[in-house]
């Protein structure tokens, strides 16, 4: 838990996190915490449980594609766009506004983008009959998806631990 708590601390200057998200911030935060008002604004704007559920729905669809099923809605050129999903729309919109200054936000955004790139690759390889490459892309999807879900759950845990501000009681 300490790893993610350090990642979700805001930048001291309030600016966007640096592109090198592999370095941990130098503060000694003990748990993932958002400022009270910030947390409640975010919870009002976005349902993390729903985001987790909708993201998890991708995995059975991709498994069916890997097994040879075809779905016209799952076109590689559409799936490759990480803003095609509900989570992606939030990450590129109000999520960036609310959380863009936290170092882990860019990690979440990049993992989500990578998931969509690998999902598009899986579809492309499966449609071309390249089963070995499709399986590799599927494994990459599963790994990226677990990371996205882990980051979302850590974010949710931090939001739930935040006390309600007096002005909102």
Oligomer: single chain
- As residue ranges, the low-confidence spans are 1-5, 18-33
Strand residues, percent = under 5%
CATH-assigned fold name: Four Helix Bundle (Hemerythrin (Met), subunit A)
Secondary-structure element order, as H and E? HHHHHHHHH
Description:
Helix content is 63%, strand content 0%. The protein is an all-alpha fold. It has a single domain (2-6, 34-164), classed as Four Helix Bundle (Hemerythrin (Met), subunit A) (Up-down Bundle). Helix 3 runs antiparallel to helix 9, helix 4 (58-66) runs antiparallel to helix 9 (131-161) and helix 8 packs antiparallel against helix 9 (131-161).
Describe this structure in a few short sentences.
The protein is mainly alpha-helical and 169 residues long. It has 9 helices and no strands. It has one domain: Aspartate receptor, ligand-binding domain (Four Helix Bundle (Hemerythrin (Met), subunit A)), CATH 1.20.120.30.
